[in-house]
Amino acid sequence: MEERVLSIQSHVVHGYVGNKAAVFPLQLLGFDVDIVNSVHFSNHTGYQNGFTGEVMNGNQLNLILVGLEKNGLLDNVGHLLTGYIGNESFLKTVLEFLRKRNSPSDTIRNKLRYVCDPVLGDSGKFYVPTELVAIYRDQVIPLADIVTPNQFEAEQLTGVSISNLNDGKRACQALHDLGPNLVVITSLTFPQNDEKDKKITMLASNRIKQSHAPGDDNYKDELWCVDTPILDGNFTGAGDLCAALFLGWTCKEPNNLPLVLQNVVSTIYSILKSTREHHSKKVKNSNAKIENELRLIQSKKLIEDPPALFEAKRVV
What contacts 24+ positions apart, CB below 8 Å, involve 139-143? Predict the structure, then answer.
């Protein structure tokens, strides 16, 4: 499979979310990346004084895809990564492209490996029109190879309220049943008796067919999880970074999900810890308002060679 990725995500001029959080890590892991922006904003939406820019629509996306197609620039793309998409027409154009590109009648080009980060919202709040939930559930996710929702998104897509690890397993099963072989719920938090012990869990489930015989649908789900301490602060772009790292490491280590999970979690935790320490020191020294933009460029070595900070545990 070609090591070229088509990444369709948000773009901000300042900061590290969307494509700016995903492209650099993928390049460090050896991928060429073609970049398509779903929005073009001055900065991410968490800034106190707002943002300016525009949300792209389906016609604008189609113009870009037509130009790439005319020049044969989609022929050697092996992977599709999607993140934040702000409106229905844009999402439906992505669907049309994916269906056409992976059509059985396209016998010349390899099937795209599709990693879908279904960005809907977080912490009980939607970032996108709620109509997109049904489109993701019924049309987009069935075409995905890997899906990487956070806890809120997994609950919206499956109808499963997740308050413990068994609920997380049920949500993974429901997402598998929609189509993807690999499901990653990126940020699970459960009620804790002691706030000091509060942690965040990443849960990954791989659905493995037990037989390649025609008509044999027997399978088993292999689940792994990694727990990490919760770092103080609000971080943007971590989910975009996570989806990109899963694309990269599952390609490099296709038969070793626990190692993939360990590498992804250790990379993200290290970058968030470095970000928090840097910005906290900056605020302390200058009384400036904390930004918490990811220290991505400064974390080049962490991305290329993740430290072994956490061990993946098999979920029974």
Answer: 139/95, 140/91, 140/94, 140/95, 140/116, 141/116, 141/175, 141/178, 141/179, 141/180, 142/178, 142/179, 143/95, 143/98, 143/99, 143/102, 143/114, 143/116, 143/179
